[in-house]
Amino acid sequence: MTTFPSVAHAPLGTPQVLDRCRTVVGPALREAVGRLHPWVGEMAAYSFGWCEVGGAPVTASGGKGVRQALALLGAEAAGAPGRAGVPAAVAVELVHTFSLLHDDIMDGDPARRRRPTVWKAYGTGPAVLAGDGLFALAVETLAETGAGGEAVRLLSAALGDLVRGQADDLLFASRDWTGPGRVRLAEYREMAEHKTGALLGCAAALGALLGGAPPATVAALDRAGRHLGIAFQIVDDMLGIWGDPAVTGKPVHADLREGKKTYPVLAALGSPTPAAGRLAALLERAGDPAEAAALVSEAGGRSAATAEARHHVGAGEAALAGVPLAAPAADELRAILEFLVRRDL
Question: Which regions in the chain score pLDDT beneath 70?
């Protein structure tokens, strides 16, 4: 039977876990960004919410730090101190931010977290440059660790999947709502696993790798993170239709107004209900988003999305249960799975 060294804390609630991990990772992340060219570093700091355009510091910080937490908990679940996962946390956070910079350019999004996006604030070319700098810094961060070769391989594979997922997501926009060219739910799941799940799985897997975990544990944590990513993306889809604008920062029915191929809509269109036919006709003519949201619910899209997100939470928990993990990190990982999809379920 596998035994693990004792740990210094009882299991924490998820908000406390996220706070604890941000506190541990924060100084290392800032130190890494500080190694960039000053102008590139300013844009990176702006994207993290650390400063305004021009470099004036601000006290606000951006994001929950989920990937940072998964990396530290991955190391702790392997029986190592959380600090063993700090390089993984820094690298994945850098890649995530790099992907957001490029994503905002591709989508033409003018704002993120109620501030101008980097390309709107600094220009498209500088934003691309900043993203490239963040990616190079992430690779350097992992290359300097004792598991540098394998760690960079894991990150590169996750980035390759992220690119595939982003490509599929962009191509979905040009496909028909119904008929033989429509987006199938299986295609959506693959897109979400790649676009969102790959980096979440990579964070936990890299933390475990740097914590000395065996390959089976590294692989199990990667699978759990990928299932979390699918569930997370589905809940984001639900928030994009029915979420409170005060919480999401998006206008009500934003995703329907933009014609996005989201899970609730795709599930509704595939249901054998009269509402599905009315929804398809409405979407084809870009009709009233409020009416579309009601039809998605009536056709079962909202309940199907909830059930699918729950399924992937269960699959993530099953992946964690398949290998020996140290407590309390294992319990905190399971709590994060549930916490992140409870936002609208």
Answer: 1-12, 60-62, 248-249, 343-345
Residue 238 CA to residue 255 CA, distance in Å, equals 9
Number of compact structural domains in the chain: 1
Bridge partners, residue 51, by sequence:
57
Residue 329 is assigned to a structural domain of this protein: yes
pLDDT tens for residues 9-39?
545 688 899 999 999 999 999 999 999 999 9
Could you tell me which of 315, 336, 97, 101 has the C-alpha nearest to residue 204? 336
Cα–Cα distance between 73 and 211 in angstroms, integer? 10
**CA–CA distance, 120 with 81 (Å, rounded to integer):** 40
Judge whether 317 lies within some domain.
yes
**CATH number of residue 184's parent domain:** 1.10.600.10
Rounded-to-integer distance, Cα 169 and Cα 166, Å: 5
Give the three-state DSSP class for 299. coil
The answer to whether residue 293 is domain-embedded is: yes
Q: Over the stretch 237-255, which tens digit does the pLDDT of each residue have?
A: 999 899 887 776 677 788 8
In a domain, residue 3? The reply is no
- The helix/strand/coil state of 116 is strand
